[in-house]
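Posted in: Protein Modeling Q&A

I'm a second-year student putting together a small comparison for a lab meeting, and my supervisor asked me to include a predicted structure for TIGR00245 family protein. I've never done this before, so apologies if this is the wrong subforum. The sequence is pasted below exactly as I got it from our records. If anyone can share the structure token output, I'd also love a short note on what stands out.
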Amino acid sequence: MAETSSYLTWTNVLIGLLFIIFDSVLSLFLGLGISSSLLVAALRCIVQLTIMSTILGKVFASNNVWGVFGIAVLLNLMAASEATYNKSKRRFTNMFPLILAAMLCGTIPVSVLGTQYAMAQHPFWQPDQYIPIIGMILGNAISSLGIALNTTHKEFSENKDKVETYLALGASRFEACKPIAVSALKLALLPTVNQLSVIGLISIPGMMTGAIVGGKSVEQAARLQMIIMFSTALPSKYLYMAEANVAAVISASSALCTLIALFFSLSTLVDGCVRIRSDRLTSEAPLLYRWRNEAGAKVLKVAKRVGGAVTGKKRESGTAEERRGLLDGQQG
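Accepted answer (user: helix_wrangler)
Welcome! Here is the predicted structure, written out as tokens:
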């Protein structure tokens, strides 16, 4: 296969960053309020990928099983932190360690079995094969967890009377929480189902693109993508089988992580004495994240002032109610 890749420099990265800067300026001009989020996300992308490439380069060169194990644990820790503090608007008691346990139980077995048997890698822990796979699995799991937990916590915050009615009629806590769990699971796995329906027809998936750019044949890249998609998403079909009371083995990591996390969440919010524990659910972010949000708000405020000075837009004084009152007085 002909060499198709080229050497990329930081100049190329800067050119790509110009698109994000353009979006941020456009957001600032239109008042969308997402310019700071775009810039922070772009900065995180640069820093995270730079650090990851440095670490992975050394791990790949060493070809050491303990290095691979350390990277896998580190990725799970970061994924649990992301799912707990960034993807969830509300958090329950001891959420981080419980989400970490769900991540480990859902990703490690699937990644080991997938690389050992489905991808025929011997040993399974080959760094250039195992680490990208577990990274993709964790990325998919984070998205599913975020949707499922946000849906569940919103129901408990706004519509907990339904659960209370079930409990008052003698239902167990799992029977009372089952409708919420089923709805959350369906919603969480819907993006995966949609992705499976268009993959190869409309979109060329990321792993396949990377394999092609890396020099693999198109046929091998397609087969690799099939294995990855099946190992991360196939058991989403279980939801539809369950409606017909057909048992199925849930082995996909995203579904397994979401199921375990929902179990921990519902067990925390409805205790063993069949009581709803709303006091265990909070929307307050940790101190470090509050500092980060405050700093981001200050930066956005300064950016708005600079943008207003550049565009010549004068800042209106007073609140909307005060201005409306003045206008009413003038009209009277």
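A couple of things worth pointing out for your meeting: The longest strand covers residues 91-92. Confidence is low (pLDDT under 50) at residues 231-251.
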